[in-house]
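re: ur msg from earlier - yeah i can do the inosinic acid complex, just paste it... oh wait u already did. ok heres what im feeding in:
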Amino acid sequence: MSTYQGLEILFTREQIAERIKEMGKQITHDLEGEKLVMIGVLKGAAPFLADLARAVTVDTTFDFVAVSSYGKSNRTSGAVKLIKDLDEPIEGKNVLIVEDILDTGLTLTYLRKIFLQHHPKSLRIAALLDKPSRRIEKIEADYVGFSIPNLFVIGFGMDYAERYRNLPDICLMPPDAQ
Ligand code: IMP
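and the outut:
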């Protein structure tokens, strides 16, 4: 396995770029001739949204929400709270929620529920990573970059206690650094 700054790489920047291009093609195909609002979940989804948005050719705008997260530990508290709401109404629009990882599913289940209350024309989910074995809520993404086992990952937007988001590759969190 290759490393970056001493960290084991799970997916290289090249593998990520290739997969996001494929996801963009699929989304473009599914939304041909439609308008799209990509809603990024701050902060982890920012690099993924930036690349995914440039991989679609449909007429696309962005919005962002922020939810309470794991904070300074990697354990979920179970409670999700919206700490930054949408800037623009999504009623009648094609919405794509863009998230870094679908883990327990608590975050996306909560966001899906509140967005559906705004009556979008359609609502889809894109997750760069999926950890199906960790699921608590019954929810699946429409577009998944990579499905992974129960590993804690960092980089390409994903953090441990707010660090490592700027790693260009998706790396494994070393157990001794937790
Ligand atoms: P869920 O609500 O449990 O599905 O969690 C989703 C959020 O948990 C993600 O957006 C991440 O912020 C965080 N998360 C889950 N697994 C990891 C990981 O392996 N590394 C970094 N953040 C993670």
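cool cool. Residues 13-30 form the longest helix (18 residues). ping me if u need the other ligands too
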